[in-house]
Protein 1
Amino acid sequence: MDNGLEPKFLICTECNEEFVFTIQAQEYFAERGYSEDPKRCKSCHTLYKKGQRGGKPRQQTAMQYPD
Ligand SMILES: [Zn+2]
């Protein structure tokens, strides 16, 4: 079970609130090839994603939090 990961505490660039980048989320991101930490907390990220609907097909390249 020990994969060397620890929860990270990050500051959201949208609301400036501290949020936890959980091990689960880190693994999820890593599986998708993301090496950078998320810049938004989950709630801001969700709003950001909703605001991006502009007729483009769904992009899997955008960062996505696990549910
Ligand atoms: Zn936020």
Protein 2
Amino acid sequence: MKIAMIGTGYVGLVTGACLADIGHTIICVDSAVDKVSALEAGDIPIYEPGLSDVVERNVGAGRLSFTTDLVQAVADCSVIFLAVGTPPASDGRSDLSQVEAATKQIAKAADTSKLVVVKSTVPVGTCRRVGRILAKHGGGKDFSVASNPEFLREGAAIRDFMSPDRIVIGSSDDKTKHVMHDIYAPFAERGVELVSTTLETSELIKYSANAFLATKVAFINEMANLCDATGGDVSALSRGIGLDRRIGEAFLKPGPGYGGSCFPKDTLALTILAQEADCPTRIVESVVDSNSFHIRRLGRRIADFCAAAWCEDSRVPLVGRRIAMLGLAFKANTDDIRQAASTVLAPLLIKSGAEVVGYDPEAAQAAAAEIDFLETALTMDEALEGADAALVLTEWDDIAAINWEKKKKLLKHPVVIDLRNLYDPAKMEALGIDYMSLGRPKPH
Ligand SMILES: NC(=O)c1ccc[n+]([C@@H]2O[C@H](COP(=O)([O-])OP(=O)(O)OC[C@H]3O[C@@H](n4cnc5c(N)ncnc54)[C@H](O)[C@@H]3O)[C@@H](O)[C@H]2O)c1
């Protein structure tokens, strides 16, 4: 099938490349000229493992192309996917301006009937609204709308797209449903379940899934804090509950709180749309609170831990101290820093008088552009050299594999704060490192 993908960001590019890989012909459209020029020149504008191979293979096979010309792409295709951004507005709602603008453009560009598939994460009711915009601006042409939320995770996007747990399709008529089933037929043939439902339910499934996963993250962080307060060990706790198949082991690792471009905005948007429906989601509201409380509390704990390790009794222990921040992306294997822990903790530490030097194999440039007064280092050693403490935020392989026996020599003070529980507390103690992790007792 010939498909236009409007929006060639993390989701649009992966979806476009993977749909091409299963045999469709995809025209990826983006309004960002530099992004399209880079893609046309064979450069991938984001860091996503495995993506460049899939893009290269399908461009070579003539199934994948890039353009800024939305009008031509819409004219050439009967199915149009919308994968534009839905960032948080200042009031916490989803900002749907990209969805609305692109929908109007599609309506005006369409010459015949089109199916518009909403892949962006949108609040319940948006697909109907897209339908109304198409009807209003489409000059009597026949449009149908489907909802097809995306569940891929950055850093594992190709694997997630190609081997999904399920594919969710929302529609309001059988013809649309059948076209969607045709698009995803190669997955269904491999036994992937296509969950077909209404537009509204499909939209809600995406928010429910993210809210549920965010709840697991916030929950295990609270349990880690409780372990710290009572002498428990969150690693054993996590295993002890995660092996219960009703609970499951995924998303039960403590950390600096959930971040990224999805969980924070989607949980908040869900609470707002639920309040507006006069049906508040108290659990999700608590999760949002818990997550922001957790990271702010970590900011205080980091300062207290450092003060104790440096034997600093001043009330402003961080003033003039140099902190090496290891990992700036919101998680490993991505260059995405949207709502990353670094974007909260670096400003907090800098405001407290510290000098923060960040290292990240892929996200340093984006972080330096986003975080005022953040210095960035080209190598991990450069960040660690002369630092008063190392603060580990992202579980990149090279950070997880640090040989602290060697690297501690670079530090001015052997202080390591590990918000991903990457290292063995007993080994760190044996090396004479003042080591803080989350919810794990000090070795005896
Ligand atoms: N990033 C993720 O991990 C992820 C996962 C699942 C779902 N989602 C959802 O998918 C959607 C897209 O997310 P993303 O991270 O890919 O966003 P993104 O910001 O990386 O990409 C959006 C792209 O759309 C382009 N665009 C906007 N308006 C356009 C228009 N009128 N015509 C052509 N191009 C246009 C932008 O230039 C940008 O390149 C969001 O709703 C998001 O919540 C994201």
